[in-house]
C-alpha cells in the first residue's frame, strides 16, 4: 500500500473564497479540527500577506502539535523571512514557496524569461533551505507550462534542496488523463525525482479537481492538496474529504492508505461550513444532507434488508451520527464537561464555567440538548468571545400593519454604552437600522440566511449574514434561542469584523 499524505489549504486557498473572511479565533478552531482529522500538513496562511495572516500562522504553528504546519511565500526573500518568523516555533518548520512557470504567467505577470524564473526559483529554494528543514516548491500554472521546461526547473529546485514538488492546476484546466501524464513525464524526465514527494493541487473550474487528484495518485503523486468542502478561489479546490473517501472505498483499485480519521469528516465539514458561511449542497458527495438519504421505495426496501445494496459509504464512516439526546436541564457540570470532551473540545475551567451557564440558560428553554447544540454554543463563544461591540439588550415591537421598532443597547470595547431606536419595514430591518444608528455606519445587507439547529419547535436559531460597508464585505453568524436575537448577533458579528478590517487597512497592515 502506498501512503498518501493530505495537505490541507482550507485556511489559505480556501480562505481566498470570495466573501470568506475568518478571524484569528475561527482559524485556530479550524486548525485544531484539522489536526483531529489527522491532516498531515496544514497550510495555515500566507504570512507576508497581512499582519493578521502572520499572527494566525504563528499562533497555529505553536498550537498544532500532531500535524505539520506550513505557510505560503512568493519567491522573494522578504516573504520567506516573514514566513520563517511565523513558523519557526512549529515542530517541523515547513515552507511552501511558489513561482509561475507557464509562458502566459511568465510573460504577462512576472515579465521574466524562463531562465530568469529558473534562476529565481533555485535561489529562493536555496535561501529557504538554510532555515526550513522542509521546503515545498510549487510551479504555479504548471499544467499550462512547457513540459521540458517544467522538468528542467523541477530538477534544479530538487538539487537546490526542495523536498516536495507540487504541480498545481492553478486554473482548473487540465483533464485527468493529461494530469496523470504530467506526473509520468516528470517521473521519467527528472533524474532526481525519487528524492521528493510529488504533490497534486487541483482547482475545480471544470468540475474535475477530485478526479484529477485521483489521476495524480495513479500516476505516482504521494501528496494531495485541497480544502474541506472544496472551498477556494473561484470554483474552489479539490474536496479533500471526497478524495479521502474515494481512496478508502476503492482501496482495492488505488492500493493506498492515508492517515485521515474519516469519522471526523462530518464535524470538520460542518465547522468549516458554519464558520465560512459556505453552505453545503444537499447532494454534495460524502457530506451532503442527502448523501445517505434513500428516497425511492425500491432503494429503501433494499437498504432495510441490507444497507450495502445501495450504500457504498456508511454514514458512520464519515461521522454522520443519528441525532442523540445528550444532555438536559438536570445534567451537571461534570457531565457537561465530559460531553464537550467527547465532541472534541478540551477547554479551560474558566471557559467551561461560562459555557455551562449558557448551557443552563438554554436547557431552561429547550428540553433536549444535542451535540449539535453544544457545538453551536462552543463555536459561538469561541468566535464571538472578544468582540468590540456586544449586544447588551434588544427589544422589538412589531405587529401586522404596524411599523416595526427596535431598541438596542450596545456595549463598546471601552465600556461605554450606546442606546438607540429605529424603525424598519420588518423586525429584522428595524434591528439592522438601529445597529447602524448605534455605530453611525452605513451598511448594506448582502445576504441573510436562517436555519434551525436540529429542527423542532424549540430549536436554536442560527443566522448567517453578509454585509458591505465602505467597500468591505464581511460575514457574521449568530446563534440564539430567539430568531431576532440571533439576527442581531449575526449582524453585530459582521460589523465587528468590518471594524477590524478597516482598522488594519488604516494602519496599512496589508503588504
Ligand atoms: O493554485 C495554485 O497554483 C496555488 C499555488 C500558490 C500553489 O494555490
Ligand atoms: Zn491553488
From TrEMBL:
One Pfam family cited in the UniProt record for this chain: HMGL-like
Tagged with keyword Metal-binding: yes
Chemical reaction(s) catalysed: 3-methyl-2-oxobutanoate + acetyl-CoA + H2O = (2S)-2-isopropylmalate + CoA + H(+)
Listed GO MF terms: 2-isopropylmalate synthase activity
Binding site for Mn(2+): 13, 201, 203, 237
UniProt pathway: Amino-acid biosynthesis; L-leucine biosynthesis; L-leucine from 3-methyl-2-oxobutanoate: step 1/4
EC category: transferase
Keyword terms of this UniProt record: Acyltransferase, Amino-acid biosynthesis, Branched-chain amino acid biosynthesis, Cytoplasm, Leucine biosynthesis, Manganese, Metal-binding, Transferase
Domain Pyruvate carboxyltransferase: from-to ranges: 4-266
Entry's EC annotation: 2.3.3.13
InterPro entries associated with the record: 2-IPM_HCS-like, 2-isopropylmalate_synth_dimer, AIPM/Hcit_synth_CS, Aldolase_TIM, LeuA/HCS_post-cat, LeuA_allosteric_dom_sf, LeuA_bact_synth, PYR_CT
Domain of life: Bacteria
Needed cofactors: Mn(2+)
Self-association and partners: Homodimer.
Function: Catalyzes the condensation of the acetyl group of acetyl-CoA with 3-methyl-2-oxobutanoate (2-ketoisovalerate) to form 3-carboxy-3-hydroxy-4-methylpentanoate (2-isopropylmalate).
Family the entry assigns: Belongs to the alpha-IPM synthase/homocitrate synthase family. LeuA type 1 subfamily.
Identification of the protein by name: 2-isopropylmalate synthase
Amino acid at each position: 500500500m502506498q501512503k498518501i499524505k493530505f495537505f490541507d489549504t482550507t485556511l489559505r486557498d480556501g480562505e481566498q473564497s470570495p466573501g470568506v473572511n475568518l478571524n484569528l479565533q475561527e482559524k485556530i478552531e479550524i486548525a485544531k479540527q484539522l489536526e483531529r482529522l489527522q491532516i498531515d500538513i496544514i497550510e495555515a496562511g500566507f504570512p507576508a500577506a497581512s499582519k493578521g495572516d502572520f499572527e494566525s500562522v504563528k499562533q497555529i504553528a505553536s498550537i498544532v502539535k500532531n500535524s505539520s504546519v506550513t505557510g505560503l511565500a512568493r519567491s522573494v526573500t522578504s516573504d520567506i523571512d516573514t514566513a520563517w518568523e511565523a513558523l519557526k516555533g512549529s515542530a517541523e518548520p515547513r515552507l511552501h514557496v511558489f513561482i509561475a512557470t507557464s509562458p502566459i504567467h511568465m510573460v504577462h505577470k512576472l515579465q521574466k524569461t524562463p531562465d530568469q524564473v529558473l534562476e529565481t526559483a533555485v535561489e529562493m529554494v536555496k535561501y529557504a533551505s538554510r532555515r526550513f528543514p522542509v521546503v515545498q516548491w510549487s510551479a504555479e500554472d504548471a499544467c499550462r507550462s512547457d513540459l521540458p521546461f517544467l522538468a528542467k526547473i523541477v530538477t534544479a529546485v530538487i538539487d537546490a534542496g526542495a523536498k516536495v514538488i507540487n504541480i498545481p492546476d492553478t486554473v482548473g484546466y487540465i483533464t485527468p488523463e493529461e494530469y496523470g501524464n504530467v506526473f509520468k513525464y516528470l517521473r521519467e524526465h527528472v533524474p532526481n525525482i525519487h528524492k521528493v514527494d510529488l504533490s497534486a493541487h487541483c482547482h475545480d473550474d471544470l468540475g474535475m479537481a477530485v478526479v484529477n487528484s485521483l489521476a495524480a495518485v495513479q500516476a505516482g503523486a504521494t501528496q494531495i492538496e485541497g480544502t474541506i468542502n472544496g472551498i477556494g478561489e473561484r470554483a474552489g479546490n479539490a474536496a479533500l474529504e471526497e478524495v479521502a473517501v474515494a481512496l478508502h472505498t476503492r482501496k482495492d483499485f488505488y492500493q493506498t492508505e492515508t492517515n485521515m480519521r474519516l469519522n471526523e469528516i462530518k464535524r470538520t465539514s460542518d465547522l468549516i461550513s458554519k464558520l465560512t458561511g459556505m453552505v453545503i449542497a444537499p447532494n454534495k458527495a460524502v457530506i451532503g444532507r442527502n448523501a445517505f438519504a434513500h428516497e425511492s421505495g425500491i432503494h429503501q426496501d433494499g437498504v432495510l434488508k441490507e444497507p450495502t445494496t445501495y450504500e457504498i459509504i456508511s454514514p458512520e464512516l464519515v461521522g454522520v451520527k443519528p441525532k442523540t439526546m445528550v444532555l438536559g436541564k438536570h445534567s451537571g457540570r461534570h457531565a457537561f464537561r465530559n460531553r464537550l470532551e467527547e465532541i472534541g473540545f478540551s477547554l479551560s475551567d474558566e471557559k467551561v464555567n461560562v459555557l455551562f451557564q449558557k448551557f443552563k440558560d438554554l436547557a431552561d428553554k429547550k428540553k433536549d440538548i444535542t451535540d449539535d447544540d453544544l457545538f453551536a454554543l462552543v463555536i459561538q463563544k469561541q468566535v464571538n468571545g472578544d468582540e468590540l461591540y456586544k449586544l447588551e439588550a434588544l427589544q422589538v415591537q412589531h405587529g401586522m400593519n404596524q411599523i416595526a421598532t427596535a431598541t438596542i443597547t450596545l456595549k463598546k470595547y471601552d465600556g461605554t454604552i450606546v442606546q438607540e431606536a429605529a424603525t424598519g419595514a420588518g423586525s429584522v430591518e428595524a434591528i439592522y437600522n438601529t445597529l447602524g444608528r448605534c455605530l453611525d455606519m452605513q451598511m448594506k445587507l448582502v445576504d441573510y440566511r436562517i436555519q434551525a439547529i436540529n429542527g423542532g419547535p424549540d430549536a436554536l436559531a442560527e443566522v448567517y449574514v453578509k454585509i458591505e460597508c465602505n467597500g468591505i464585505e464581511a460575514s457574521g453568524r449568530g446563534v440564539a434561542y430567539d430568531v431576532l436575537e440571533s439576527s442581531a448577533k449575526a449582524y453585530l458579528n459582521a460589523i465587528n469584523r468590518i471594524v477590524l478590517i478597516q482598522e488594519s487597512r488604516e494602519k496599512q497592515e496589508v503588504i
